Amino acid sequence: METELLQKFITAVQPLKEKEWEVFAGIWQPFECRRKTVLTAAGETERYLYFVLEGVQRAFYIGDEHREATIVFTYPPSFSGVADSFLTQTPSKFFFETLTASKFLRTSYKQLEELINQYPPIQQLVFKLTAFALKGVLERQVEIQCYSAEEKFRALLRRSPHVLQMIPHKYLASYVGIDPTTFSKLLGSVRL
């Protein structure tokens, strides 16, 4: 069943009692899309929270001169979407797209908000998930501002070595914040 992976993920963060799990599981609907589908565009408000069952996605920013900066990748099992836009219900500054065909469970902001207001343990779960996401963002900020190109590359390999086979290297270079040529050179020379 599709919600089994979601339940396993949730239980690792904060187990829910049977009743709370049932209502939480009940708000998720299956959703599929093809590769290179833009699910949220800059300027739109993120209406859905996704839980990734299959596939790889990315959130990215397009700056001046159409330069792209990949902000985050998601793949199973993880939550996905443009988190800040979803949580604040304000227009996104980022695009959210699938890099491969993807299968999700998704829920709307309204559905999740209703449960948060009714069930304190679900509110606590969302708080913890948001706190972990913020922790990851702050750690990435340090990497981006303080690490050399090689240190950024090594951090990526330590954290997620499997992404080298899952994600095109041009997107990984953008995520790490280095030139694709430098990324290729590091790929050939750096070993952990």
CATH class of one domain, named: Mainly Beta
CATH topology of one domain: Jelly Rolls
Low-confidence stretches: none
User: Roughly how much helix do the residues carry, as a percent range?
Assistant: 40-55%
Rg, nearest Å: 17 Å
Overall mean confidence score, pLDDT? 93
CATH superfamily of one domain: Jelly Rolls
Biggest sheet overview = 4 strands, antiparallel
Q: Can you describe this structure?
A:
- The protein is an alpha+beta fold and 192 residues long.
- It has a domain at 3-118: Jelly Rolls (Sandwich), CATH 2.60.120.10.
- Helix content is 49%, strand content 22%.
- The chain is built from nine helices and eight strands.
- The protein has helices spanning 3-13, 18-25, 83-88, 109-118, 120-146, 149-159, 163-166, 169-176, 180-189, and strands spanning 29-33, 38-40, 48-54, 57-62, 68-74, 78-80, 95-98, 102-108.
- The chain has a four-stranded antiparallel sheet.
- A hairpin with a 5-residue loop joins strand 4 (57-62) and strand 5.
- Helix 4 crosses helix 5 (120-146) and helix 8 (169-176) crosses helix 9 (180-189).
- The protein is globular, with a radius of gyration of 17 Å.
Condensed summary:
It is globular and about 55 Å long.
Offer a few descriptive terms.
alpha+beta; 192 residues; Jelly Rolls; 4-stranded antiparallel sheet; 22% strand
